[in-house]
């Protein structure tokens, strides 16, 4: 795991610079990147909507497995990750020193994202190159979302898909889906239990 000192951006792309394929815009199908080390996972997932795509970025509290921030967008630009993080922070109000972990995507390495982290006193942690296990919790969430909900539906509009994804996150995943890592209770139940204890 790589930790970057607060406020530095050496070696990071500006948000208008693109180092990932597919971020130039347009409704092209996202692809799984291949590296010399093998398959590299993405920090986001995508949903088929009509003739285009809807991208989803999430932030998950590793203690409770609760999805605390998310953003959906028709394009995979740098702002989607920042919007998801801002939603998480607004709902949790975490103290300075919080570790924000992601992969090495341009959405997490751009100047506006790293400056926002520094301004709030958060510490950025990025996956090791080619190590898909670093983001296993997020990847497992995406697998659950697709196998339990979105793979079985045809969305005609982005709004229809957006409503369904938010319903899955709030009304099912956070509220009712049981997690073996939490003793077979939901993330919301786990947080309520640990606050009482």
Describe this structure in words.
It is a single chain. The chain is an alpha+beta fold and 197 residues long. It has one domain: Nucleotidyltransferase, domain 5. 34% of the residues lie in helices and 21% in strands. The chain has helices at residues 79-92, 106-109, 111-119, 136-148, 158-173, 187-196, and strands at 2-4, 33-35, 38-40, 44-49, 52-61, 66-73, 99-102, 123-126. The strands form three sheets. A three-stranded mixed sheet has the order 1-8-7, with helices on one face. It has a three-stranded antiparallel sheet with strand order 4-5-6. A two-stranded antiparallel ribbon has the order 2-3. The radius of gyration is 17 Å and the shape is globular. The two termini are 32 Å apart.
Brief account:
Helix content is 34%, strand content 21%.
Secondary structure: elements and pairs:
Elements: E1 2-4, E2 33-35, E3 38-40, E4 44-49, E5 52-61, E6 66-73, H1 79-92, E7 99-102, H2 106-109, H3 111-119, E8 123-126, H4 136-148, H5 158-173, H6 187-196
Parallel strand pairs: 7-8
Antiparallel strand pairs: 1-8, 2-3, 4-5, 5-6
Helix content: 25-40%
Q: What do the pLDDT scores average to?
A: 79
What is the CATH fold-level name? Nucleotidyltransferase, domain 5
Shape from CA axes? globular
Task: Please provide the ordered H/E string of secondary-structure elements.
Answer: EEEEEEHEHHEHHH
Structural class: alpha+beta
Quickly list its features.
single chain, 197 residues, alpha+beta, three-stranded antiparallel sheet, 6 helices, globular, disordered N terminus
């Amino acid at each position: 795991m790589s930790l970057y000192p607060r406020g530095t951006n050496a070696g990071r792309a500006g948000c208008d610079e693109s180092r990932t394929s597919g971020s130039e815009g347009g409704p092209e199908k996202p692809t799984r990147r291949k590296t010399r080390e093998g398959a590299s996972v993405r920090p986001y997932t995508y949903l088929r909507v009509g003739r285009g795509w809807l991208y989803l970025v999430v932030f998950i509290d590793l203690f409770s497995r609760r999805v605390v921030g998310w953003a959906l967008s028709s394009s995979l630009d740098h702002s989607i990750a920042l919007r998801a993080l801002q939603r998480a922070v607004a709902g949790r109000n975490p103290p300075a020193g919080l570790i924000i972990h992601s992969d090495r995507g341009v959405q997490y390495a751009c100047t506006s994202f790293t400056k926002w982290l520094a301004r709030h006193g958060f510490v950025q942690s990025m996956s090791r190159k080619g190590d898909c296990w670093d983001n296993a919790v997020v990847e497992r969430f995406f697998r659950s979302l697709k196998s339990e909900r979105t793979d079985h539906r045809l969305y005609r509009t982005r709004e229809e898909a957006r409503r369904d994804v938010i319903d899955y996150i709030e009304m099912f995943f956070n509220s009712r889906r049981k997690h073996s890592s939490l003793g077979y209770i939901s993330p919301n139940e786990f947080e309520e239990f640990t606050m009482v204890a």
